[in-house]
Design a protein that fits this description.
alpha/beta; eight-stranded mixed sheet; Endonuclease, Chain A; polyphosphate kinase like; 21% strand; 28 strands; 708 residues
Length: 708
């Protein structure tokens, strides 16, 4: 699975010369680096070795990623420009300059996306019997079927909205797909404008009964548009889509009730300023000008397409029952320590954790038979006195929510810290938080001014030798759906020091505390950056050639950490960074970062785990390995509650080192970042695929019983 060997991605349209000594040129722009990540996603859609429907899926992911980028990042730049902010980012650009660079790069990427969809994916699917059809291409039987679909399922939920002196231009909601319709009154000859919203409760593409052809929903509506305007003449119609600022702006210090404040902001989100207008490229100047004026967007925020808008709807095509055109199904395994034999009956987690820590690696290790089972056992065990958990994102049907409710019903002390400000999951979090409260769970909504992003569970159990605390600290959310798609790690332990630290942490989150000190875990915002900088300095102190740092994360943005890594490189420390998404550090720059290498793994699973390794960072001068929820970004280090936990068992350290080694040896999914800001596919014979290799290791680990 790899793009052409000469593939080079160029995110940094304002890249600095390698020898430039201007400090601003030591950094890659954050927004352009994110766009480069999304281009690596797009490269998977272009890769002919990827199964065809998976290529369509990556087009959908690229599209939905870009939606969120405009809703949050581009919207934030617009806010800065409108506020008159001329402060420069670490790479030296003003908000206005960043917007210009972003628009230029987005235009290039969406042109590539559209060419890829129409020029490669559509023909390739047609060759496999899956055809993107237009209304004009359908025969009489097909049209008869779609007439029935329209009459029974689509027409009843459509609402035509006229625009005239008695009907002002309607509000166009965020990410909604619409038809702009020009009409003529046959009596007066007067031309009218109307808007029809394409219902987002229906699939984006209508799949025909043969399961092999699909047609955009807006084309089905357009073919019957005259039924919405009886007696009027339909002159033309054009699809359009609006993206709005969807970031919440909370004045938490002034809110008497955080829950009510978030609910109010969610209602306001619908009315955020428009930051992007997507149009059918056949739109007439008259309709284009009307939409730009009424929606109130800049010309630079308008993007035109010759193909269907919103390719995020390709998820419905990916859902077709064509396993021959998808990745082989992977069934997560249960580690041998968590089963009682070939029948895979569940064992007591409490007994196993007293024998030694357990490291789980999702989606290779089963989430349901590890994390969910741990909390389920805690909810039913009569010796468990309390369960405390942080919940950032989960699902309404989560087994963990059910376990917490069951535990509360059994009179256990249950605390759920729910992050109401988890972007785009706010409403869902409010709903299941209320369900927990009704069941008697103590629900806490986090700290003012901070997001609680850590993924931690504390179980308190009464045992013959006294109270013992069992813990889970993870890199990913307590979400069974993403646990099948995201690569994440979790540590299950009954280490007394970790248990004491999490007890302090939960007391801090639910009560009042200052100047906390922790024995084992690293906690943001108070201690994490300082300790990371100390660990980097410790590798420098080891002497030239002795220091070694390997960091795996989602994003590297923080200037202080980047500067410390530059200094370590100049001091002779060898540094490898595996950064899935944003990386603002420039590697391999002579005199600045000669000993730093950066790569990104992008493939079937979304690389989400954070592993921080320092060769001399342990308490005895030996190796240190940390896993946890924090990336090295200002928001994680300064504005979120995050936890990293040390992994100290030698056999588990070996497992983490294996993950890092495979990532660094990958010559199939890996991209390398150059000092000029360009990403190039790592050359090689394509013999090591991280995701395939991790599946193999999980199967082997399943057969290796015994305490760690």
């Amino acid at each position: 699975m790899r793009p052409p060997s000469d593939a080079v991605l160029r995110p940094d349209t304002v890249g600095a010369p390698l020898a430039d000594t201007d400090p601003a040129h030591h950094y890659i722009n954050r927004e352009l680096s994110w766009l480069a990540f999304n281009e690596r996603v797009l490269a998977l859609a272009a890769d002919p070795t990827v199964p065809l429907l998976e290529r369509a899926k990556f087009l959908a992911i690229f599209s939905t990623n870009l939606d969120e980028f405009f809703q949050v990042r581009v919207a934030g730049l617009h806010d800065q420009v409108e506020a008159g902010n001329v402060a420069r980012s670490p790479d030296g650009l003003t908000p206005t300059e960043q917007l210009a660079a972003v628009h230029q790069e987005v235009a290039r990427l969406v042109a590539r996306q559209e060419a890829l969809f129409l020029g490669e994916i559509v023909p390739a699917m047609a060759a496999e019997g899956i055809r993107l059809s237009s209304w004009e291409e359908l025969d009489d039987d097909d049209r008869k079927h779609l007439v029935e679909v329209f009459t029974d399922r689509i027409f009843p939920v459509l609402t035509p909205l006229a625009v005239d002196p008695g009907h002002p231009f309607p509000y166009i909601s965020d990410l909604s797909l619409n038809l702009a319709v020009m009409l003529a009154d046959p009596v007066t000859g007067e031309q009218r404008f109307a808007r029809v919203k394409v219902p987002d409760i229906l699939p984006r593409f209508v799949v025909m009964p043969d399961g092999e052809r699909f047609i955009p929903l807006e084309q089905v509506i357009a073919a019957h548009i005259d039924e919405l305007f009886p007696g009027m003449e339909v002159l033309r119609h054009h699809a359009f889509r609006v993206t709005r600022n969807a970031d919440l702006t909370l004045e938490e210090e002034e809110a008497d009730d955080l829950l009510m404040a978030v609910e109010m902001e969610l209602r306001r989100r619908r009315f955020g300023k428009a930051v992007r207008l997507e149009l059918d490229d056949r739109v007439t100047p008259e309709v284009r000008d009307l939409l730009v004026r009424e929606i109130d967007v800049d010309e630079s925020d308008v993007f035109e397409f010759s193909g269907p808008l919103d390719l995020g709807g390709l998820w419905s095509v990916h859902a077709l029952d064509r396993p021959d055109l998808k990745d082989p199904v992977w069934m997560p395994v249960t580690q041998a320590r968590l089963t009682s034999g070939d029948d895979e009956q569940r064992v007591s987690f409490f007994q196993q954790l007293r024998r030694g820590d357990v490291l789980v690696h999702h989606p290779y290790d089963s989430f349901s038979t590890s994390v969910e089972e741990f909390i389920r056992q805690a909810s039913t065990d009569p010796k468990v006195l309390a369960i405390k958990v942080t919940l950032y994102r989960t699902t309404r049907d989560s087994a963990i929510i059910g376990s917490l409710i069951r535990a509360a019903e059994r009179a256990k002390q249950v605390v759920a810290l729910v992050e109401l400000k988890a972007r785009f999951d706010e409403q869902a979090n409010i709903e299941w938080a209320r369900s927990l409260e009704k069941a008697g769970v103590h629900v806490v909504y986090g700290l003012v001014g901070l997001k609680t992003h850590t993924k931690t569970t504390l179980v308190v159990r009464d045992e013959p030798d006294g109270i013992r605390r069992y813990c889970h600290i993870g890199t990913g959310n307590y979400n069974p759906k993403t646990a099948r798609l995201y690569e994440d790690l979790g540590l299950l332990t009954c280490d007394p020091a970790v248990g004491a630290d999490l007890t302090q942490l939960f007391n801090y989150l639910t009560g009042y505390a200052r100047d906390l000190e922790f024995q084992q875990v690293l906690v943001a915002p108070d201690h994490l950056r300082r300790r990371i900088l100390e660990l980097i300095a410790g590798e420098m102190a080891a002497g030239p050639g002795a220091g070694r740092i390997v960091l795996k994360m989602n994003s590297l943005v923080d200037p202080a950490v980047i500067d410390a890594l530059y200094e370590a490189s100049q001091a002779g420390v060898e540094i490898d960074l595996v950064v899935r998404g944003i990386c603002c550090l420039r590697p391999g720059v002579p005199g600045l970062s000669d000993r730093i290498r950066v790569r990104s793994i992008v493939g079937r699973y979304l690389e989400h785990a954070r592993i921080y390794h320092f060769r001399h960072g342990g308490p005895d001068g030996g190796p240190a390995y940390y896993i946890g929820s924090a990336d090295l970004m200002p928001r994680n280090l300064d504005r979120r509650v995050e936890v990293l936990v040390p992994v100290t068992a030698p056999i588990l350290q070996d497992e983490l080192q294996t993950i890092l080694d495979v990532n660094l040896a990958d010559d199939t999914l890996a991209w390398a970042l150059g000092g000029d800001g360009t990403w190039s596919h790592v050359p090689g014979p394509a013999t090591i695929d991280t995701h395939t290799r991790m599946q193999e290791l999980a199967l082997a680990r399943r057969k290796q019983p015994g305490p760690h």
